UniProtKB/TrEMBL annotation:
It comes from Nonomuraea soli. Residues 27-242 form the Orn/DAP/Arg decarboxylase 2 N-terminal domain. This is Diaminopimelate decarboxylase. GO terms for molecular function: diaminopimelate decarboxylase activity. It comes from the Bacteria. GO terms for biological process: lysine biosynthetic process via diaminopimelate; polyamine biosynthetic process.
Amino acid sequence: MITARVVDAAQRLGGQPAYLYDLPALDAHAAAVRQALGGIELYYAAKANPDPRLLEVLAPHVDGFEVSSGGEFAHVRDLFPRARLALGGPGKTDAELGLDPYRLHVESPAELRRLKRLGVEADVLLRLNLDVEVAGASLTMSGPFGMDPSAVAECLPLFDERVRLRGVHAHLASGLEAAQLLELAAEIARHHPKEVNVGGGMAVSYTDPGHRFDWEAYGKGLAALKRPDQVLRVEPGRALTAYCGYYATRVLDVKRTRGERFAILQGGTHHLRTPVTKGHDQPFTPIPARVGREEPTTLVGQLCTPKDVFARRVPIALEAGDLVVFEMAGAYAWNISHHDFLMHPKPGFVYLD
Ligand SMILES: *Cc1c(COP(=O)(O)O)cnc(C)c1O
């Protein structure tokens, strides 16, 4: 998984915690996804990682960006003044409703009424809350997200020439494989002829980093669903940027406490919170690779909390001073971490280009 360029960059850092982004790898991946999707529109969900350098690499490959707040809207608009933006999110302020996105994803009848009272113009997709079982999803977006059929029915008479209904939006779950997403997309596309955004949530496996979402199958399947006059759109986040990011650091201490071996790393989950939020072991490569004397080892950070864990009981030989490069740290990583907890220094940022 890890390339010689990334190893080389990590070694040059000398163990100082840093994010490494492999921009050519992101470029190649985004080009392959674009190619596989053919005539299906591709938006990138900026909340997965809004780093401007990554957005610049993605921009030529996408038809637009999905933004989930006024902050993300301003950030992306600033970088790409002419890009198409789709603005969503379950609780929008009047100020956010007054922005002028290409598409506004409306989440409730009350929100639509408020939009009309503001007197602004808008091109709306209604976000659906579908009554479907999503087996195997890592996070399902039911609850407060979107609208059930009765709420959708309440919205329909409210549209006019200023607040226009363009279609529907449905981001249902995260961690779904192509076949599962296609089943859901088929359901939505059948009922809604004009414009359909079937969301993101394409599976990324942290336990099996080599396993990749089948973009070819998804692209073919969506092409088969799409009617000639219909716009079909997807808005992945994680599956686009997860793989291009690495978090590199070093081992400060190795100790044994009551029979369990711990490697204590510089940095911690205040830099890379992904394994805690997802409840997985973050995949990593140790440098050097020490063969022999492997022993179950728990990799932790510098925070004074037992939750500061990157990976548990991984059979490995690590020594103080060794480098550890965590993989799949390009999405929901730095930007979801609690940076200021304990006031340790921030990591560095290195962009391989
Ligand atoms: C977070 C989010 C996405 C992206 O989800 P991924 O799992 O990162 O692909 C897309 N659409 C909406 C509405 C979201 O909230």
